[in-house]
Structure formats: C-alpha cells, structure tokens
Amino acid sequence: MESVNQKLGNHLRQRRMEKQLSLDQAAAQTGVSKAMLGQIERGESSPTIATLWKIATGLHLSFSTLTQNLLPEPVSALRGSIEAERIPTANTDIQVTTLFPFDPTLGFEVMSLLLQPGSQSMSEPHDAKVTEHCIVVSGTLDFLLNNEWITLQAGEAIRFAADQPHGYRNSGNVPTFFHDIIHYG
C-alpha cells in the first residue's frame, strides 16, 4: 500500500508531466528547489503547508487538486467533515483539512484550518483572480494583508484578493479554528 508521501509524490509527478515541465522548469515556476521537488516526487519528504502552497500556485493548480486523494477516504461530493481529508505535513503547528476539494464547475475549494497558539503560516501570492474568504470559527486570527496585521475574532470574516502575499497568525493562547474558501476566478 502506498504511503501518503508516495501518493503525493506520484500525484505531483503526474501533474508536472501533464504540464510538460522538467524538474528544473517546475523549480523555476514554483520557487521550490529541484532537489526538494525530487524528494517529494520520490516520496522521501513530507513538505510543509507553505511548500505545498508554493507548488500548487507555481503549477497553477488549486491546493486540493495537488493534495487530493492522499488519504483512503476522500471527502464526499455532497458532505464534508472536519475529519475528512487532513493533509499531513511536517509542520504540526497548522493542520489543514479539505472539506470540499476543488470543483472545476464551481471554481472553488473549502478547507478548515487549525492554527496552534504562537504559530503562523505565510502564503505566497496565488494566481490573479484568486479570492479567499476566511471565517473564524473559534479563537483569534491575526491576518496579514498589505503588510498590516488585522485581528479577527470568532464569528468575523474577511474576503481578499489572494494574488498578494498574506499570512495567518495565532498570537493567542488557545488554538484558532477557521474556514478558508478559495475561489479560482
């Protein structure tokens, strides 16, 4: 049975080959080194969420397209669950769970994120026309946009053009749980 890292590596290689990119070309497009991409493709590395985002953005893929079907039970097309498809990474400070993977007909994906106290996740710009909608369910989320941190409380939300650097930080002392709806315009 294939491990999660092997599935991710095979899927990444398949997507890279579909785009007819060499490892050198993929490295140039994603900003992830050729050596790291090779390690991921061979299933020898468990990349961070930030690295997965860089790869997805550089290859012009949605995040869930890159990470789809890594676990034995994918998310149902009609019903999501916060235990559905947690994306395993080396970074335990942030957990990303795909509730609804990218649907090309609708143009969006839905994820839940759990950010541990004192941790943060920075994101490179996504493609033009990508919009994110973040909804804080519990805890406090510091959100970086235009080089300014904005604090959101449980029940608050923000929508922004994701074609710019942005970040998420939990400066509180309890975990922050939020949903991220990403629309690929």
Automatic annotation (TrEMBL):
<dbReference type="InterPro" id="IPR010982">
    <property type="entry name" value="Lambda_DNA-bd_dom_sf"/>
</dbReference>
<keyword id="KW-0238">DNA-binding</keyword>
<keyword id="KW-0805">Transcription regulation</keyword>
<dbReference type="InterPro" id="IPR014710">
    <property type="entry name" value="RmlC-like_jellyroll"/>
</dbReference>
<dbReference type="Pfam" id="PF01381">
    <property type="entry name" value="HTH_3"/>
</dbReference>
<keyword id="KW-0804">Transcription</keyword>
<dbReference type="InterPro" id="IPR050807">
    <property type="entry name" value="TransReg_Diox_bact_type"/>
</dbReference>
<dbReference type="InterPro" id="IPR001387">
    <property type="entry name" value="Cro/C1-type_HTH"/>
</dbReference>
<protein>
    <submittedName>
        <fullName>Helix-turn-helix domain-containing protein</fullName>
    </submittedName>
</protein>
<dbReference type="Pfam" id="PF07883">
    <property type="entry name" value="Cupin_2"/>
</dbReference>
<dbReference type="InterPro" id="IPR011051">
    <property type="entry name" value="RmlC_Cupin_sf"/>
</dbReference>
<dbReference type="InterPro" id="IPR013096">
    <property type="entry name" value="Cupin_2"/>
</dbReference>
<feature type="domain" description="HTH cro/C1-type">
    <location>
        <begin position="12"/>
        <end position="66"/>
    </location>
</feature>
